[in-house]
């Protein structure tokens, strides 16, 4: 067994340049929502090269709408394929899903980027660009791990199912479609950017929209109106108070080093249409974190009730209550016991490669792990090489060394989890 | 002379239904910026009926760009004509411009309107709809006054120049174009909605844009970013402090009953693009009031300096200062001595019709009076029948009785100002 493990290490060292080249190509494709197909074409090309059985399909609304967990901001997934590659085992071993999303969030304010967001520049051992860390770097680690197994002619007992999915950033419809299509396994790894921490638990989250009313007036007699912008300021403060209250309740030791375990993020604001008019409506959209083990419905109710208490602070809201809607995406929270054998197996490979113990924490964000665990009933760990703090940031980057370490750790755990056929 | 004055009163009484019908037609044309031509066609039809010499033209950028006072949010005025009708006097009298704008502000949140905004419903002596008060009702008062003079075969000595202008709501390019085209007079009346108050002074105003920066991050680790929405809240509070400071300085007795003589209105806010990302930019657009007699440049400098002091309240703004831009519209402030003969003449007609003294105040908003006074050097009063508080409001309306009173007052003051040829 030592020889196989050593040869995996050597193979990954020898194929660093190929890995970097692959990640560059991925990052150079701006695979924001609806624009995933060019990046998926590169996945397909790579899976053909490795020699996996390939499944490419566009999820359909008809099928997904039957699922209670389904959420989307889209009308259709036309032109946005999922891609799955299967490495069939010899039988008698445990199967493993390796899942990564291909979609990236928009690049935001270009002025804050030192380089163009899709240039994929490499400097000082880091590769820069939108998606480098979240999570195309993780995907490359998976592909290298599988390729190493294949090129070294290692025969696994259990199946390995690689999934390159759309829609993680807006609620997990891509991974849900994989479950609906019948992909199951005894365990799953998602290499989201965890700074190489092991996350057996993940925060869930969901999107909300707050509509705040004012009363319009000419700006020159603005005292005759009520500014929805000023009222929105009260709402922002009130929501931040709820965030504080909810986080004071979190005592899971896995969250002890995280400043805000379940954040409420106010992501966008929009209101008013004319500089000389008092704005009569402001809409705020945001994301509410849900604790592992918390019911989504409980969290929803808590926000709605809290927003209802605004009227105690400001009578305006008695007459014009803020409307709360839930829309678009949600990510289910997820919990795996830290004693589960999947955690043990991954920990062992981690120790073997890194020569120290992994940090085991709870994730500050939802991932497709919620779908795999809650809907697919597949024990799932989130563990990957990306830099957590750079996800969704300008100048997003990944440290290339950790990418190759992750590839090695995952390849080794595949041997142990799936078993090797002599 | 008593006979002429009495017959004007009688004529207006007899033509109330025609006036209401005309106002309905005007309100039913949604003459927002760029969509003025159908309402202007009704003006032209009416001027032909009255028998005035008509001038219709689309202002050109080439000509207006030479004017320092010119501001616009548009690329072109194609399809947005100005209309002027001239009632030539017999000579030897003072000329008078009667100026009204045909453009209306957008209707805002439809849910706040009881009736469709352009339905022009009449109920309990009020006509409802966007533009009813600001200022199509005033325009109808002008047209009725002129028509009364014409149909009663009264020959005025001085010229009367009726102007139906575009672009008042975005900075006065229409009235500026009239001045550039050569229209001059010894005095001017603008029947903006003043609640029948006489405004010899008007507040100026100008539009600004504030760009507030944050730093993006994933919403699940939002503590790694800086929310531009939260930073924008500090900016809103800071701007409201400046408004307070500037208004404490105003001691003109004409402003004594106005809660905020020169408001700073924050009209729109927009920032962030994704519920699960920390927003890295918020843009606020607003309108700054300028006191009669205050230099526009002084007011600009004061806002810019004030915004610069944000860094004393929050170090973030040291590194990421809020950017201030001036864009789109401005309206020059305007001052006419309350002893000016135009004020006296209008006051006399007012007393004759209303049997009491007019309220003489300073306006809380800019009008095209700034252009007429500062650029055309034409003494100008703003006086009209609309309801100040309903301008730019949902459920905007005008009280029809005051419309006919204003028509009578203006017709009578035309006799006195222009002189009657026997």
Record the SSE blueprint.
Two copies of one chain form a homodimer.
Chain A lengths: L1 H13 L1 H13 L8 H14 L2 E5 L3 H4 L17 E6 L8 E6 L20 E2 L2 E3 L3 H20 L8 E6 L7 H8 L7 E3 L7 E5 L1 E10 L14 H21 L15 E8 L9 E10 L5 H13 L1 H4 L2 H4 L3 E9 L2 E2 L5 H14 L5 E4 L5 H7 L4 E4 L13 E3 H19 L4
Parallel strand pairs in A: 3-6, 3-7, 7-15, 8-14
Antiparallel strand pairs in A: 1-2, 2-6, 4-5, 5-16, 8-13, 8-15, 9-11, 9-12, 10-11
Name the features.
ArgE/DapE (chains A, B), Alpha-Beta Plaits, nine-stranded mixed beta sheet, Aminopeptidase, elongated, homodimer, 422 residues, hydrolase (chains A, B), acetylornithine deacetylase activity (chains A, B), 2 domains, alpha+beta, 13 helices
Describe the structure.
The structure is a homodimer of 422-residue chains. The first copy, chain A, is of the alpha+beta class and 422 residues long. Chain A has two domains: 2-202 and 333-418, Aminopeptidase, CATH 3.40.630.10; 206-330, 2-Layer Sandwich (Alpha-Beta Plaits). Chain A has helices at residues 2-14, 16-28, 37-50, 61-64, 132-151, 173-180, 228-248, 296-308, 310-313, 316-319, 341-354, 369-375, 400-418, and strands spanning 53-57, 82-87, 96-101, 122-123, 126-128, 160-165, 188-190, 198-202, 204-213, 264-271, 281-290, 323-331, 334-335, 360-363, 380-383, 397-399. In chain A, the strands form three sheets. In chain A, strands 1, 2, 3, 6, 7, 8, 13, 14 and 15 form a nine-stranded mixed sheet that branches. The first copy, chain A, has a four-stranded antiparallel sheet with strand order 10-11-9-12.
């Amino acid at each position: 067994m030592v020889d196989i493990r050593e040869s995996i290490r050597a193979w990954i060292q020898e194929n660093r340049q190929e890995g970097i080249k692959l990640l560059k190509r991925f990052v150079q494709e701006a695979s924001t929502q609806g624009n995933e197909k060019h990046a998926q074409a590169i996945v397909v090309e790579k899976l053909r090269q490795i020699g996996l059985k390939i499944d490419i399909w566009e999820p359909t609304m008809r099928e997904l709408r039957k699922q209670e967990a389904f959420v989307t901001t889209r009308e259709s997934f036309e032109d946005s394929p999922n891609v799955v590659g299967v490495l069939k085992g010899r039988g008698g071993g445990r199967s493993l899903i390796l899942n990564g999303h291909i979609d990236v969030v928009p690049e935001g304010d270009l002025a804050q980027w030192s380089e163009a967001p899709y240039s994929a520049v490499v400097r000082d051992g880091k590769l820069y660009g939108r998606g480098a860390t979240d999570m195309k770097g993780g995907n490359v680690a998976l592909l290298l791990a599988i390729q190493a197994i294949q090129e070294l002619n290692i025969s696994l007992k259990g199946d390995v199912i690689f999934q390159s999915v759309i829609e993680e950033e807006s609620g997990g419809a891509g991974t849900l479609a994989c479950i609906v299509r019948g992909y199951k396994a005894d365990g799953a790894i998602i290499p989201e950017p965890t700074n190489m921490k092991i996350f057996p638990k993940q925060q869930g989250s969901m999107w909300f929209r707050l509509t705040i009313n004012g009363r319009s007036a000419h700006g020159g007699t603005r005292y005759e109106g009520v500014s929805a912008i000023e009222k929105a300021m009260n709402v922002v403060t009130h929501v931040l108070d709820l965030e504080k209250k909810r986080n004071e309740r979190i005592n899971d030791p896995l969250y002890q080093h995280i400043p805000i375990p379940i954040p409420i993020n106010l992501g966008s604001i929009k209101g008013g249409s004319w500089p000389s008019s008092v704005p009569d409506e402001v809409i705020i959209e945001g994301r509410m974190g849900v604790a592992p083990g918390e019911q989504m419905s409980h969290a929803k109710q808590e926000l709605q009730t809290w927003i209802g208490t605004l009227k105690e602070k400001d009578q305006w809201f008695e007459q014009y209550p803020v409307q709360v809607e839930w829309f678009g995406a949600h990510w289910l929270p997820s919990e795996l016991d830290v004693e589960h054998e999947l955690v043990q197996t991954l920990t062992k490979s981690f120790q073997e490669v890194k020569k120290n113990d992994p940090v085991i924490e709870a994730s500050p964000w939802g991932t497709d792990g919620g779908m795999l665990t809650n809907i697919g009933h597949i024990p799932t760990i989130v563990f990957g090489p990306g830099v957590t703090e750079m996800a969704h940031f300008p100048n997003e980057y990944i440290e290339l060394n950790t990418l190759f370490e992750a590839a090695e750790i995952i390849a080794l755990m595949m041997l142990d989890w799936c078993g090797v056929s002599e």
